[in-house]
Specification:
By secondary structure, the protein is an alpha/beta fold. The protein is built from 27 helices and 37 strands.
Length: 895
C-alpha cells in the first residue's frame, strides 16, 4: 500500500523515510519552464508508482490536485534499452521526449550524441547513462559521474523516461491502486490550500479547471487519517558534485594573459600546415601584432580575470608588460613583509588557553540539525586547535553567505564558555545582531549558557543590567554592534571575540580590533569568498579558514529583466507562495512605499504583506524583519535595507520594481538575497515604460552573469578580487586588474615563499621546444566538436608531466568520444616525446628531412652519448622508418 502524508506547505517536507512529491514551481500558461530538479523528482516517483512500488510520499494538497498525463502515456513514451538490442540514435527522438541537446551532460533532462555514443540523464536514475553503439546495436551501457564525465558501472538495461511536464486529465492518484492518506494538521493544510486556490483562481479565472482536479480533494477528505508522521527532520537534499567551469577555459573574443607577452584577445584556434606536417595554434591579437602559440604551450595562456574596462592590449615590441610585472612584484613584496612582521609579533605573545570539555562539546555538536560539509568540519577543527594553544588566535574565516560560518563561530563560543571564559560577538548592523542573538540563544541556552543582546534597541535599564552582568561574569555570551566597543563595557574574563564582517566597521573600530588581537582570541568572519590559491599562499602568515563548498543543492538564480507589468508581478508572487515560499519586493523610494503597499494588498488580498525601511523606528523594523524571518509574512516590501545581513532561505523570489536606478554592485547584492536553499530562485528586475536603452545596459550585464557557466564564475572572481582587498589591502585591487587574478596569485605565492625564506617546491613542468615535427597531429572537429572541450584537452596534455597522465587522458577520450583517430594518436605520441625528453634534460628537438637534432641541457645524460658533438652542443640522429616512433624508442632506451 502507498502512504501519502499531507503537509500544509512545502517548508515542512523534509521528512526522513518519505519521498517528496513537489508541486510545479511554475504556473499554468506562464512562459517559465518547470525546473529540471522538480521535473526529475515528480517523474521518478510516478515511474516507481507505475512499476507498483509501495512508497511513502510526503506532499501538499495543491500538488495532489494538479492534473498530469496518464499512466498509459508514461508507459508508451518510455524507452527500454538493452545490450545487444537494436536502438535508434536519432536526436529528434529525444528532443520530442523533452530532453535538451548539450555537449556535456550535467543535469537531468540533457543528452549528447558523439558519433555512436549517447549520454543521457533520465529522471529515473541518480546518475546519467552512456550508451555505446556498434552500428545500430547497443554494445555497452554504463553509468557515469557528471563531475569527472568518466564511466563507473556497467548495466544490462536502462529505461529512458520522458522529460516532459504536460497537463492531462489524470492526477498522481491514478498511478496508485491502494492508498492511505495521513495528515498531522488537516485544518492548517486546508487553510493553506484554500489561500493558494483563491490566488490561482484570480489569476487563471475560468481556465482554472483545465489545470486542477477538485475531485481529488473530495477523495482525500473522505479517507484522510489524522496522525503523527513520527519522522525526523533531515536535509532532504540530494548531493551531487557538478563540474565547475575551469577558469582556464577561454572562448573566442575573450581577453587572455600570456605570461611572457601580456594581455591580448584570443581569436580562436587555427590549423597551420608546414612542409613537414599540420598542427593547431592559438591566435592571440596584440595591439601591434598577432602571435601564434602552439598548443603544447597553452599552459602559458589563461583567461584574463579583472576589469576589462581598465586594461589595454599589450604591444609585443615594447617593454610595458615587463615594467607592469616588476611594479606588481614590488608592491606585493612590501605588503607581504608587513603581514609577516605582524604575524611574528603575535607569535611572541602568550594567549589564553581554552582546553574545553570534550564530552559537553560532543553533545553540543549533536544539536546541529545538519551534516557538516567537509570544508565546515575542517574549519571547526582549525579553530578549536587554535583555542587550545597558548598563542592568541587571530583567524579569518571566509565563505559566501549561507555556507555555514555561524556554526563554526558557535562551536568556538561554546568551547570558550565551557572553559570558563566570556564571548563577545560584534556585528555591523542591528538586524544582523538580532539574527545572531536568536541563533546563539536557541543553541546555547539549553546548555545553561546565558546569551544577551546589547544594541540600540535596548532600553537604558536593560543596558545597565547587561553591563553589570558582564562585569560580574553572569553573562556568558554578549552579541552587539559597535556599542560593545564602548569603554564602559567591562568583562569579568573575556576569552573570545567574534567579529562578523569586519570590513564594514569604521577605521576607529578597526584600530581597537588590532589592539585586541595581541591579547585575546579573535575569530573574524567574512562573507567575501577567498580563492583557494590565496588561502594556500598566506598559510603560515595569516591564519585563514575557508568554506568554499556551498550547501548541497544550491541553484543559480533565474534573472528576468522586463518592463513593469502587473500580471507579471502577480504570476511571480503566486508562484512563490504556491510552493510555500516568501517574496522580497524592493522599492527604494521611502515616500512612495505606502502607495506601493496599498497596491500590493489590492492585488493579493489573501496574503500577509508588511513593510520595512530605514526611517522606521528600529524596534518596529526589527519586529517586521523577525516576523518575515519566522515565516509569518508572505511578502516583505522594503528598501535596499535588505541588501545586507538577513539570511532567509525560504525567500526565493525577489522583485525590484525600479531596477534602472541601481548600480551593478547593488544589483548583485540584491540578487544574493534569494537562492539560499535547494530551490530554484527568481529575481525580477523591472523598469517603468519609457526608460532609455542606455539605462538598461547594466541590467543586461546582470542577466549575462547568471550561471550555470563561465559568466557566473567571472562574477564570483570579482568577489574574490575584493576578498584579496580585504586581506592584503585595497591597493592590491589595482595590481590584480593590471595583470589578471591568476598571474597575481602565482606571483603572490612565489613572494610569500621568498619572504619566509622557504625552499620553493616547484612541480616538474615540461619545457621542451620541438621544431618542425612531422605528421598531422591535432584533435579533429569530427572527433570532439566542441571548441571549448578541444581546448580543455589540449591544456591537460600540455600540463601533463608524467606519461601516466597521457594514458589517463587517452582512456577518458575512449570512454567519452570513442576510439581516437590517427591524428589524435600521433598528438599523444608528440606529448609523450616531450615528457621523455624533459626527463632526459633535453631542451630542444629539431626535426629535419633526414635527421633529428637533440639539444641537451647542462646535466643531461645525453652529453655522454656517442653521437654528441661538443662544438654544436647537439646529438644528431638519423631517422629510420616513422620519425615519431623512432624517437620515442630512442628516448625510452636512453631513459
Amino acid at each position: 500500500m502507498v502512504e501519502i502524508l499531507l503537509v500544509p506547505n512545502e517548508r515542512e517536507i523534509h521528512l526522513e523515510g518519505y519521498l517528496f512529491y513537489p508541486s510545479r514551481d511554475n504556473l499554468p500558461l506562464e512562459d517559465v519552464p518547470l525546473s529540471p530538479e522538480v521535473k526529475k523528482k515528480r517523474m521518478k516517483i510516478l515511474w516507481r508508482l507505475l512499476k507498483g512500488e509501495n512508497l511513502k510520499i510526503v506532499t501538499t494538497l495543491k500538488a495532489l490536485t494538479e492534473k498530469i498525463f496518464s499512466p498509459e502515456s508514461l508507459k508508451e513514451r518510455t524507452i527500454e534499452v538493452r545490450r545487444s538490442a537494436s536502438f535508434d540514435l536519432s536526436p529528434e527522438r529525444f528532443v520530442e521526449m523533452g530532453y535538451e541537446r548539450t555537449f556535456t551532460v550535467q543535469m537531468p533532462g540533457e543528452f549528447s550524441i558523439r558519433g555512436g555514443i549517447l549520454d543521457i540523464f533520465s529522471p529515473g536514475y541518480d546518475f546519467p547513462v552512456r550508451i555505446e553503439l556498434f552500428g545500430e546495436v547497443v554494445e555497452d551501457i554504463r553509468f557515469f559521474d557528471v563531475s569527472t564525465q568518466r564511466s563507473f558501472q556497467k548495466v544490462d538495461e536502462v529505461y529512458i523516461l520522458p522529460f516532459l511536464d504536460e497537463y492531462g486529465d489524470s492526477s498522481l492518484l491514478d498511478f496508485v491502486k491502494d492508498v492511505r492518506f495521513t495528515c498531522e494538521n488537516l485544518e492548517k493544510a486546508l487553510t493553506e490550500y484554500r489561500k493558494i486556490r483563491k490566488e490561482l483562481k484570480d489569476l487563471l479565472k475560468e481556465k482554472y479547471d483545465l489545470f486542477f482536479d477538485e475531485g481529488v480533494l473530495e477523495r482525500v477528505l473522505k479517507n484522510v487519517e489524522k496522525t503523527s508522521a513520527g519522522a525526523t527532520v533531515s536535509s532532504g537534499i540530494e548531493e551531487r558534485s557538478l563540474p565547475l567551469v575551469d577558469i582556464d577555459e577561454i572562448e573566442e573574443g575573450e581577453l587572455v594573459v600570456h605570461k611572457e607577452h601580456g594581455i591580448a584577445i584570443f581569436e580562436g584556434m587555427i590549423r597551420l600546415k608546414s612542409v613537414l606536417g599540420e598542427r593547431d595554434y592559438l591566435k592571440l591579437k596584440y595591439e601591434d601584432a598577432v602571435l601564434y602559440v602552439p598548443v603544447e604551450k597553452i599552459d602559458r595562456v589563461h583567461r584574463y580575470i579583472g576589469d576589462p574596462s581598465q586594461v589595454k592590449l599589450d604591444r609585443l615590441n615594447r617593454g610595458r608588460w615587463k615594467r607592469t610585472l616588476k611594479k606588481v612584484r614590488e608592491d606585493i613584496e612590501k605588503r607581504v613583509r608587513e603581514l609577516v612582521e605582524l604575524y611574528l609579533k603575535r607569535e611572541e605573545v602568550r594567549g589564553t588557553l581554552l582546553p574545553g570539555d570534550p564530552e559537553l562539546e560532543e553533545k553540543f555538536a549533536e544539536t546541529f540539525p545538519y551534516i557538516e560539509t567537509p570544508d565546515q568540519q575542517k574549519c571547526i577543527e582549525e579553530v578549536l586547535i587554535d583555542l587550545s594553544s597558548e598563542k592568541p588566535m587571530d583567524r579569518l574565516l571566509c565563505g559566501d553567505a549561507g555556507v555555514g560560518k555561524t556554526e563554526v563561530a558557535l562551536r568556538a563560543a561554546f568551547r570558550a564558555v565551557v572553559s570558563g571564559k566570556q564571548v563577545a560577538v560584534l556585528v555591523p548592523t542591528t538586524v544582523l545582531a538580532r539574527q545572531h542573538y536568536e541563533n546563539f540563544k536557541e543553541r546555547l541556552e539549553p546548555f545553561g549558557v546565558r546569551v544577551e543582546l546589547l544594541d540600540s534597541s535596548r532600553t537604558l535599564r536593560e543596558r545597565k543590567e547587561i553591563l553589570e552582568g558582564l562585569k560580574k561574569g553572569e553573562i556568558d555570551v554578549v552579541i552587539g554592534t559597535h556599542a560593545l566597543l564602548n569603554e564602559r563595557v567591562e568583562f569579568s574574563d573575556l576569552g573570545l571575540v567574534i567579529i562578523d564582517e569586519e570590513q564594514k566597521f569604521g577605521v576607529e573600530q578597526k584600530e581597537k580590533f588590532k589592539k585586541m588581537r595581541l591579547s585575546v582570541n579573535v575569530l573574524s568572519l567574512s562573507a567575501t569568498p577567498i580563492p583557494r590559491t590565496l588561502h594556500m599562499a598566506l598559510s603560515g602568515m595569516k591564519d585563514l579558514s575557508v568554506i568554499n563548498a556551498p550547501p548541497p543543492g544550491r541553484k543559480p538564480v533565474h534573472v528576468y529583466i522586463a518592463e513593469y507589468n502587473e500580471e507579471l508581478v502577480k504570476g511571480a508572487v503566486v508562484r512563490e507562495v504556491n510552493r510555500g515560499g516568501q517574496v522580497i519586493y524592493v522599492h527604494n523610494r521611502v515616500e512612495e512605499l505606502p502607495e506601493v503597499l496599498e497596491n500590493l494588498k489590492r492585488m493579493f488580498p489573501e496574503l500577509r504583506i508588511a513593510m520595512a525601511h530605514g526611517k522606521m523606528s528600529r524596534r518596529v523594523m526589527e519586529k517586521v524583519v523577525h516576523e518575515f524571518y519566522s515565516g509569518n509574512i508572505d511578502v516583505l516590501l522594503c528598501t535596499t535595507i535588505i541588501e545586507n545581513g538577513v539570511d532567509i532561505p525560504n525567500a526565493n523570489t525577489l522583485i525590484v520594481d525600479d531596477a534602472h536606478r541601481y548600480g551593478l554592485a547593488q544589483l548583485y547584492q540584491l540578487r544574493g538575497r534569494v537562492g539560499r536553499s535547494d530551490r530554484r530562485a527568481f529575481a525580477y528586475f523591472l523598469y517603468p515604460k519609457g526608460v532609455p536603452k542606455s539605462a538598461l545596459e547594466r541590467l543586461r550585464v546582470l542577466k549575462a552573469h547568471t550561471g550555470p557557466g563561465s559568466g557566473l564564475q567571472i562574477a564570483m572572481k570579482d568577489m574574490e578580487m575584493r576578498g584579496i582587498g580585504d586581506v592584503l589591502g585595497l591597493e592590491q585591487h589595482g595590481n590584480i586588474v593590471s595583470i589578471g587574478l591568476k598571474l597575481y596569485n602565482e606571483i603572490l605565492r612565489e613572494t610569500v615563499t621568498k619572504v619566509k625564506k622557504k625552499r620553493v617546491e616547484r612541480k616538474h613542468t615540461v619545457q621542451v621546444e620541438i621544431e618542425n615535427p612531422p605528421g598531422r597531429f591535432f584533435i579533429p572537429e569530427d572527433y570532439i566538436s566542441n571548441p571549448v572541450e578541444r581546448l580543455r584537452m589540449y591544456r591537460r596534455l600540455a600540463s601533463a608531466s608524467e606519461e601516466g597522465e597521457i594514458e589517463e587522458i587517452l582512456e577518458e577520450m575512449r570512454d567519452r568520444f570513442g576510439e581516437p583517430p590517427e591524428e589524435v594518436k600521433l598528438l599523444l605520441d608528440y606529448f609523450r616525446i616531450r615528457i621523455r625528453a624533459s626527463k632526459l634534460g633535453i631542451r630542444k628537438i629539431r626535426f629535419d628531412h633526414f635527421m633529428v637534432e637533440l639539444l641537451p641541457g647542462k646535466n643531461s645524460p645525453l652529453l655522454k652519448h656517442p653521437g654528441y658533438n661538443p662544438r654544436s652542443g647537439t646529438v644528431v640522429l638519423y631517422k629510420r622508418g616513422d620519425p615519431i616512433e623512432y624517437l620515442l624508442k630512442i628516448l625510452k632506451n636512453e631513459g
